[in-house]
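Late entry, evening session. Most of the bench is empty. Finally got around to the prediction I had been postponing all week. Sequence below, unchanged from the version circulated by S.P.
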Amino acid sequence: MNVQVVSDATPIIATRWSLEKQLAYLVPALAGWWLVYANLARAASWFTLRALHLTPKTALASAVEFLLYEAPKVVLLLVLVVFAVGILRSFFTPERTRRMLAGRRESVGNVLAALLGVVTPFCSCSAVPLFIGFVTTGVPLGVTFSFLVSAPMVNEVALALLFGLFGWKVAALYMGTGLVIAIVSGLVIGRLRLEGWVEPWVYRVETKGTDTAADRLTWADRLRLGADAVKDIVGKVWPYVLAGIAVGAGIHGYVPQDFMASFMGKGAWWSVPLAVLIGIPLYSNAAGIIPIVQALLGKGAALGTVLAFMMAVIGLSLPEMIILRKVLTPRLIAVFAGVVAVGILMVGYLFNLVL
């Protein structure tokens, strides 16, 4: 889930504590975080078998231990990631991003837009103002779509959670394929010259903004922004996280491995398009979908199929399409969704073929 920014300027934060005082709390907090994180597996096993007296290796014990281990693990990772991203995002604003992309050649602009989409504040509800701001300040339509695809799909929270749960190879696959889809989608849409399929009123909007306030933020301000991001984002997404982990626990404990392998395995040619179709109407954030991804992989689902499912949930969100209808005609939305879907399908089949 990305942070919503409703204005072009990053406000100056009234620093309540000095940098030294913030660090005095931050360092022991990080040490405590690591101590808890390192002992989660042992604590989950003890609680399942000793405190609850569940029989080892049964479906119920497996599901309960998965839940008790993954719930605090994902939340701890989420807190750390959101705090770091909150600090990072204090250096980026939508206005600054627009200025970096305006006037760029399409090929260079598409690559830069996709990369900026990873770190620039974005959520479904901010898609419309960002789109208006981009196209009215000279950013080409194809470059704008590279950003709109990359920002939700290559989600930095999902990237960090994948790294923490599966290692750098899976995280790198996710980031690399997501960026390629974003870049190619923007290039294709740009070559089709579909500017006439944008709602006409968009080009009549005047946008103004400045991001000079972001340059005056101190490190104490940035740390405070990181802490505020944790309270805001984690406070909103924890129900989705627990729901996703509960679903993952059920899959982990009760779904037979042979069934999942046949349903989402490499052998079923229809598994990738089916995974994409299932993922599109689902409304979840990255933190909520990762535990389900983990459980699916643990039960024998193919990596390409699971990646396609995750990208469809995050990158082809039905609520975002509905919101974008304010600025795009149905034909352009259909082209946008179709190009991205084709890219996701290709990724799914490619990774199922080579891995």
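Two things to note before I forget:
The chain is about 70% helix and 0% strand.
The chain has a mean pLDDT of 79.
Will write this up properly tomorrow.
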